[in-house]
Fold this protein.
Amino acid sequence: MAVQPQPFSGAEELPLELLHGELVCSEVLLSKDKDINELLSKLEFIGFSTGYRLIERLLKESPRFKDELETIKFICKDFWTAIYKKQIDNLRTNHQGTYVLQDNSFKFLSRISATKQNLEHGPKFLAYTCGMVRGALANLGIASVVIAEVTTMPTCRFHITITRSV
């Protein structure tokens, strides 16, 4: 299926980056005395809402995907390109509901240095994107858990585990 979502224009790219940075910073400042997990959960929920709505915009007149793998490939190619102007660098799967998406130069991490302190703050910059991916998949009928991992800046991996109903 050839889906051609319209990527954000260059004029929208900088505001998205600035909005993301401000969102993370404001949540960090507002929750100085709160648990880090509460902060990450809040950022992830905002991302979930965004991803859910973004899929509606990108696929408003397109048919749904035939299977789970095709949907994940759409996330890696078209969805990622619409947001970050590039595709995911690597997709791996065990064909049992687990997918690993690797971005070798993740936009929101490429602007911060690779110090140990910033590596510790990496999850704050990834929670929103984890939520966006989870929200997009939810709108496409796939329940999932999305977890991000940073080992070296600015490379990150998004681990998607599909939750199957029993």
